[in-house]
Amino acid sequence: VQLQASGGGLVQPGGSLKLSCVASGSIWSPNTMGWYRQAPGKQRELVALATSQRNTDYTDSVKGRFTISRDNPKNTVLLDMGSLKPEDTAIYYCVFFPGPYWGQGTLVTVSS
Q1: Do 9 and 108 meet the contact criterion of CB atoms below 8 Å apart?
Q2: What is the pLDDT of residues 28-71, one digit of tens each?
């Protein structure tokens, strides 16, 4: 499984960004796709996961601000990030389970 993530960038506090990740290769179902992030000097942490049956899970710090969604025919997972805070600054990694398989990471910077 190969994962291609896109959509990172620089945004001001309170702003929004959308991340996208497309999976290719030997895709099987059921599966789970989602996002982890790693901030400088910190461990990688879960952000959000979505199963192919569209069950979702979020870390507490992003609940109510981030929304994860799946487009199963396109093997794509999206992360709509709103009300962004400086502490959301990190490299965001797309992930596919079972595996896990990891994408290359996309940098999100929240700064004024």
Answers
A1: yes
A2: 889 999 999 999 999 999 999 999 998 999 999 999 999 999 99
Distance of CA 94 to the CA centre of its chain: 5
Where does the chain show beta strands of DSSP type E?
A: 2-6, 9-11, 17-24, 32-38, 45-51, 56-58, 66-71, 76-81, 90-97, 101-102, 106-110
Phi-psi group of 9: left, alpha or beta (phi > 0 → left; psi -120 to 50 → alpha; rest → beta): left
Task: Give yes or no for residue 79 having a pLDDT over 90.
Answer: yes
Q: 32, 42 in Cβ contact below 8 A? A: no
- Omega of the bond leading into 100 within 30 degrees of 0 (cis): yes
Mean pLDDT computed over 20-29: 93
Across the strands, what pairs with 102? 95
